Amino acid sequence: MDSVSRLLRMARLEAGLDKRCLLGAGTRMDVPAHGELRAPFHVLLEGACRLQVGTVLLDLRPGDVVMIPSGAPHRVITDGGAGLTGTAESVGEVFVTTRSEDGGRPVIDLFCGHYTFDAGAGSLLLASLPDPVHVSFGQSTESDEVLRMLSALMRGEARREGEGTAAILSALCTVLLAMVLRTSRGDTTRTALWTAAADGRIASAVEGMLSDPGADWTIERLSGAAAMSRATFLRHFTRDTGTTVGAFLTRARLMAAAELLTTTDATVAAVAGQVGYSSESAFSRAFRAYLGTTPARFRRGRTRAPGAAKSG
């Protein structure tokens, strides 16, 4: 299984479309903070607008996708008009349609939704991404063509809003996230997404650590496999992933550990060994530092998946 597919499975992501926003010129739409384990996203289908998250102001064009892993409050603004007006909502069977209060002709078509994710691997994955993530699928690439087809499906289903619409839109939104995670830094995004390292040698290192986090991943082993010097490998790894080898390996190991704690009856000590820790205490310290709880408490708070394997 490829790394992006593996990550989405481990994170237990679920997606939902909340609103279709058909906003006129000079409109401001404030989006409140999302709850714990929820990450909002927006995909702009037509028009142009700005999206403000804290001090970050993004200019969006058709084909742009923004995800906010922290769930922070944010604002969507359309230019033009005599002054900024608010929004009004009409509730449908599946989602809300939002329009400008003054009833002006729509200048943007914006889908707004959210992802929910697991408290273990999902939290670690989302916390490892830039906040916000801004990807532009407008470069006449294969991904751009896929997004156009995806957008057409989403708009068609949104207009239909009938039996099965919620499930269909949820699946399409998950496809959208997979496309974002496999998009390399460059023309499409200014921030490093380690899920899609541009350098194939770095991508191979990432894939290796994700697929076998318990292995003895030394810098010498990784740089040798990449046919680079130690210093060159470290520089390229940080450039392509936005993090250090040590921090990445820790997250990979803890994501695997969270899945094992949720889906198996292996002891905490056994899980620690499987993901590369030489002692249970070192594993517990790392787990608590990243997830805010001990492995034992994390396990007690989770429901083991049906058909989960037992240790031994």
Which terms would index this structure?
312 residues; alpha+beta; Jelly Rolls; Arc Repressor Mutant, subunit A; seven-stranded mixed sheet; four-stranded antiparallel sheet; globular; disordered C terminus
Helical fraction equals 40-55%
Q: What is the CATH class designation of the largest domain? A: Mainly Beta
Biggest β-sheet: strands ordered side by side in the sheet? 8-9-1-10-3-6-11
Radius of gyration: 21 Å
Q: What characteristic shape results from the CA principal axes?
A: globular
- Unreliable runs: 304-312
Helix count equals: 11
Broad structural category: alpha+beta
Number of domains: 2
CATH topology of the largest domain: Jelly Rolls
| End-to-end CA span | 25 Å
For the biggest sheet, the summary is: 7 strands, mixed
SSE run: HEEEEEEEEEEHEHHHHHHHHH
CATH superfamily of the largest domain: Jelly Rolls
Mean pLDDT: 88
Percent range for β-strand residues: 15-25%
List the quaternary state of the chains. Answer: single chain
Number of strands: 11
Explain what the structure shows.
With 312 residues, this protein is of the alpha+beta class. It folds into 2 domains: 3-181, Jelly Rolls (Sandwich); 197-300, Orthogonal Bundle (Arc Repressor Mutant, subunit A), CATH 1.10.10.60. Helices cover 41% and strands 21% of the residues. The protein is built from 11 helices and 11 strands. It has helices at 3-11, 121-127, 142-160, 165-181, 200-211, 219-225, 230-241, 245-263, 268-274, 280-291, 295-300; strands spanning 14-24, 28-31, 38-46, 49-53, 56-60, 64-67, 74-77, 87-91, 96-100, 106-116, 133-136. Strands 8-9-1-10-3-6-11 form a 7-stranded mixed β-sheet, covered by helices on one side. Helix 2 runs antiparallel to helix 8 (245-263). It is globular and about 65 Å long. Residues 304-312 have low confidence and may be disordered.
